[in-house]
Amino acid sequence: MPHRHEADRVVHGFPHRSAVGASLTALHRRLSPDGVRRYPASVTAADVALGDGEDLHRGTRRVARALVRHLGLPDARVTVDFRPMEYAGTVELAPGPEYSVEVHERFRTRRGDIGAVLAHEITHVLLHRLGLRFPRTAENEILTDVTAAYLGAGWLLLDAYREDGVERQRLGYLTPEEFGYVLAKRAEVFGEDPSPWFTSPVAYEAWVRGRAEARRERTAPPLAGAGPVERRRYAWERRRGRAGEGAPYAFDGGAPATGVSFPCPVCRQRLRIPAGRTLRARCGVCGTVLECAA
């Protein structure tokens, strides 16, 4: 599948919020909580670094094999070719065990970003073999980036982000902040701090902004960790039986509301619980137990 390279324009913010949430839900549903926990540690920078003195093709194949192992794919022969193309990379989704990847020739002189290209392409192979995909190509590419980031390989894609007076580069289909957001979701589950791995200052800044968004979701009503201002607004809206515009929850059952639905802060599966009660809710998709003051 093609892997976008945008050197002339970098979109910011969270324009793909719905597709990112759907991707997190689909990934947890397909792998199960135990399957997700098989990725407790991200791929290390040492495993995917390509040294200046290392043979380009042998080194690229080594990095590709490291990503294959990290994502739990069968060990098989990897071929990587460099050629002119519209996209940063493509991969052949063949039924056989071999992995055949093509990388844009510009990365011959950008060795530090080869791992990022390979992370996206090899994640395509994983999703293909899991039978996990969305109907639309754009949403499927977002699913690929979300999966790479959530399973510990996508920090490479964020670290390839550059935006300064010299160059602009973004790899993948998520915005830098969305990559930071998914990495923060992973960090919350596994207790992992990816910040030391970023060599790009703007990538680190995007991670911080994405982490702030993930933390906001962890403290949104009806979760018990919501702040007093959000809690008072939630109680008022529950009494009238209607959530305000942009609220992360929705009510039903009249006024006052008898039920409330909201997305799980881990996998974004929509949950429904009784309103007006303090309780513990368990997400049926990711298994997370949530303290709620609904």
Would you give an account of this structure?
With 294 residues, this protein is an alpha+beta fold. Helices cover 41% and strands 16% of the residues. Strands 1-6-5 form a 3-stranded antiparallel beta sheet. Strands 2-4-3 form a 3-stranded mixed beta sheet, covered by helices on one side.
Mean pLDDT: 94
Please estimate the helix content.
40-55%
Strand content: 15-25%
- Shape field: elongated
Gyration radius (Cα, Å) is 21 Å
List keywords for this structure.
294 residues, alpha+beta, 3-stranded antiparallel β-sheet, 3-stranded mixed β-sheet, 9 helices, 16% strand
SSE layout:
Elements: E1 5-6, H1 17-36, H2 45-48, H3 56-70, E2 78-83, E3 89-91, E4 99-104, H4 114-130, H5 137-150, H6 155-159, E5 162-163, E6 168-171, H7 176-190, H8 201-218, H9 228-240, E7 250-252, E8 259-263, E9 270-274, E10 278-282, E11 289-293
Parallel strand pairs: 2-4
Antiparallel strand pairs: 1-6, 3-4, 5-6, 7-8, 8-9, 10-11
Compose a concise summary of this entry.
By secondary structure, the protein is an alpha+beta fold.
